[in-house]
Structures are given as structure tokens and as C-alpha cells.
Amino acid sequence: MIAREVLAINKQLGHEHIDLKCLPADFHHHPDRIAPAADRAIREARAEGFEHIFIGYADCGTGGALDRVCAEHGVSRIEGPHCFSFYYGNQAFEAASDEMMMTFFITDFLARHYETFLVAPLGLDRHPELREMYFGNYQRALYLAQTDDPELTARAREAAEVIGLPFERRLTGYGDLTPFMDEAGGAAKRQLP
Predict the structure, then answer these.
(1) CA–CA separation, 81 vs 180, rounded Å?
(2) Is the pLDDT of residue 192 over 60?
């Protein structure tokens, strides 16, 4: 879900030495799959000779399982409970936790793929009556925009309309992902022969 952003940050920071391996985005619908898949990916990367491995997942609903995998392998991951927090800025998100409690978040990824990643998996295309059950307790849809793209803003607004929530937009950029990638890339580069 953050591959495009990681590649953009790597380009921005000049981190040509960073390789990216992605897990399926739909694991966010099945967070119990994230930690085992990360474990396999780390083992495969080590077998391929990679020494410095960094996990671009926040906890994402793993209930600490991803942290246990990271600890077992001595790798770090980006801080935060989910990408919404690190895009917003983890400290700012925590400070605004009461305000965020009834918020449904949209990122650039979700704006691009809301039909296939939100509408279809929840059955809203076949059963629009489920909308109230899924989203009735939310008060707003907040688009945390990583890029200032009018087309993505329009798509995020469409997604908010589909789920029946008032739309707000906040340009966050990449938030805490940029310093994480800078630190990870810098650490890996210092270790290159």
C-alpha cells in the first residue's frame, strides 16, 4: 500500500541502493497474514544476501505480532499503529486521537483503488444497504493526501460519497515515512563496501 510512496521518497533522497519487496496490499483485510509473510520475506531477503532490512509496515492490526517478528530478526519497522498515523505524523496523530476516533481515513492508495480495495471487498457494490452498518458510526472521511493531485482528490471525494461521509482533505505529504526512509537508507549506505 505504500510502494509508490517508498519509491518516490527513495528517488527524492537519492537512495538508489534500496531494494523494495512488497507484500500483497489485501493483507490489510487479513492482518493475521502480515507477520508470517514479513517473517518469510525477511528470511528470503537474508538468504539472498541482504543484511539491512527495514519494514515499511506500521502495526496495521497485527496486535504486536509484527513487532515480535522484527525483534526476532533484529530489524526495525516504521513506528505507528497504521499508515494513517505515520502519514499524519505519529506524535500529531496521538495528540489528536480524540478528534480521529470517528474518522475514516483515505490515503492516495485508497483514493486510487477504492472500488477494488473498499467497495468490492465489503460488498457495497452488491449490497449498498451495508453502508450504514460499516460506516454509520464515522463522522467524516479524511483524505490524508501524500501528493497534491487534483485527480486523486476527486477520487477521494468520490470514495467519501460512496460511503456517505462528509469529506475533508489534509495534505500531509509522506509524514514520518520520509525520515524513516532517510534513516534506513542512510544506515544501509554507511554499511556498503
Answers:
(1) 15
(2) no
Alpha-carbon distances of 149 from 134, 144, 153, rounded to whole Å: 28, 12, 6
Going from the C-alpha of 31 to that of each of 58, 107, 125, 138, 139, the distances in angstroms are: 11, 18, 23, 22, 25
Instruction: Choose among 56, 57, 58, 52: nearest CA to 75.
Output: 52
The three cell numbers locating residue 178:
520520509
Per the confidence metrics, is the pTM higher than 0.85?
A: yes
3-state secondary structure (DSSP) of residue 142: strand
Give one DSSP letter per residue of 87-120, joined into a string. Answer: HH-HHHHHHTHHHHTTEEEE-HHHHHHHIIIIIH
pLDDT tens for 139-162 read: 999 999 999 999 999 999 999 999
All three cell numbers of 106, joined, read: 483515505
Assess contact for 1 and 22: CB atoms under 8 A: no
Cα–Cα–Cα angle for 18, 189, 68, rounded to 5 degrees:
65
In 49-102, the DSSP E strands lie at: 54-55, 76-77
Percentage with pLDDT > 90 across the chain = 85
